Amino acid sequence: MEVNNNNSNTANTAWPDMYYPAARKSYNHIGWTLVAYLIISIVVQVVLLILAPYLEKMNILGFRTEDESLYTSILISMYLIAFPIAYLIGNSLPSFKPSKEKVGFYKLLSYYMMVFPLSFILNIFSSWLADIISGGKAVNAIDEIAGSDSPYAILMVVVIGPLVEELIFRKLMIDKTAIFGEAAAVLFSALCFSLFHMNLYQTFYTFVIGLVFAFIYIRTGRIWITVVFHMFFNFWGSVVPTIVLKAGDEIMDSALSDPAAFEKFISSGDGVSVAAMVSLMAFDLCQLILVVGGIVCIIVNLARKEFTFKPARAQVSRLVLARASYLNAGFIVFAILCLLMTVANLFAS
Length: 349
Prior knowledge:
mainly alpha; 76% helix; two-stranded parallel sheet
């Protein structure tokens, strides 16, 4: 990504580091906001899980399964309690919203398409790395949630999760930090988004998604665009595979248990079996189109030098801004907590 320095009227470049104290204060405040979000989420979730049997007996909260109890505790702790508190804390800083530029639909789509091949490749790399580090014992905890057909899990993964994450990691963070440098704000937002997942399996591809979504928001100034993109990405990566692969598993189980009966079943042209097989092939074809199309979009966008940044109104020089962003107590504490939780989650299984 490049910084466009042609428009000198939008930034004060005479004394670019005079804004260092303000930049450090903003980034530090964001760091502590994320620490508060993380700690409140964990504490409330633990309390709810401990109290779940008693609440069920009192008919306050009734859960049919243990998974339902887990999903509900996450919804309440992270989104109903921790998120409003963290947003209020973070929003106490002045906001400088990105200007609303008109970006064409096809250009936006080309930006979005890039996440599919990058996330596909980085997901494979993350799985390989997790297996190497854990000796093949690690289990991706998100698979259980993303692969669940529970309405609580779907609500969390496809609707509420993307909405809250975009408001925190794009809107809140970009509005508070982009005034000191757009490129630095995008990078910081993506890194915090990646760390907050606290899952090595997600670390690398969520970083790339964070970069793309932050860039889209900083260019368009419209958070609803990244919310919709995020929702569709999670829907395509969780709900659709769950439906398709479940049908495929049933076919494979039938084939393995009684091959002769299965062959007769298929040759009969039964609608259910044909539909399941067609859906599997259609899903694989769509995945291939998204990956290949995304690679084309990456090449075209790089060739056109699409990823440029404008000088900010209170621009701080690159190295000084890096120090303000990452060498502050708020971010350091947040990063340490997330890394510790990532390691713990990796070896939890």
